[in-house]
Amino acid sequence: MQPAQLQALKEWFIRYVRVFYSDDPAVQDGIHLKEAHTGRVCEEMRLLGNSLHLEAADLNLAEAVALLHDVGRFKQYATYRTFNDRRSENHALLGIRELAGTGALSGLPAEEENLITKAVEYHNRRELPHPLPERQSLFARLIRDADKLDILYLFTESLARENQKPNRALNSALPNTPGYSPVLIHNLLQGRLCRYDDMKNYNDRKLLMLSWVYDINFPWTLAEINRRGYLEKILDGLPATGEIRQAGERLRAAVTRKTVRPAPGAGMTAGTGS
Ligand SMILES: [Fe+2]
């Protein structure tokens, strides 16, 4: 993708989002939340792409995917006043309908239009379809990592502010009751991704966020999760049980295993993940 094409998409996005601006502060807060999220995911995407030495055209394409990955969120919030897909509709599918309906991607080569559309469609799936063509897989894995990194930022920020102003949009309105559900801690102890449908309270949400470590694709992303202290910030807010401590140890071991490069001459370099 050429820089001018990315610039045109950015201008399209600004015009598109402006339509959803509202005098109702409750609506405007939601629109602004996703606008700011989009901006940060674009920055994370550039950093991630640079870590992989993507060429300039692919970096631009990756940023376009980041720019548009949550385009469905604006209409979703304006229509349903929620970001909960289960209580409204799948925002990724809503997004690709909006892209198609507005012709936002119509000036692009068909291959790029297809890569963007598929990456947006797949960004919030529990698992990527398998197998995927190599470039579809690359851009889908990129956006999934960049998106998770910013959601972890938002989530840990909201934990820090929890007592002052809980963010209902982020904690899915789950009750802040003591304890956590056995199925989530079990998944975490097994090194598996947790399921949204299993969450019963806010602690379960924290366990689910931790389990994202097992669904990260690139070493750079894990290294950033580690460097920014997201795991510790979430673990600190959970009950101090033996299970939680064990889960924390397993998470830290997984991060170390996937981010630390072997010493020179050891014959292998850290993989890019799958
Ligand atoms: Fe999304």
UniProtKB/TrEMBL annotation:
The answer on whether this UniProt entry bears the keyword Hydrolase reads yes
Q: Give the species.
A: Desulfotomaculum copahuensis
- This protein's source sits in the domain of life called Bacteria
- Protein's UniProt keywords contain Coiled coil: no
GO molecular-function terms, A-Z? hydrolase activity
**Taking every annotated instance into account, which residue ranges of this chain make up the domain HD?**
41-152
The name under which this protein is listed is Phosphohydrolase
TM region positions: none
Give UniProt keywords alphabetically: Hydrolase
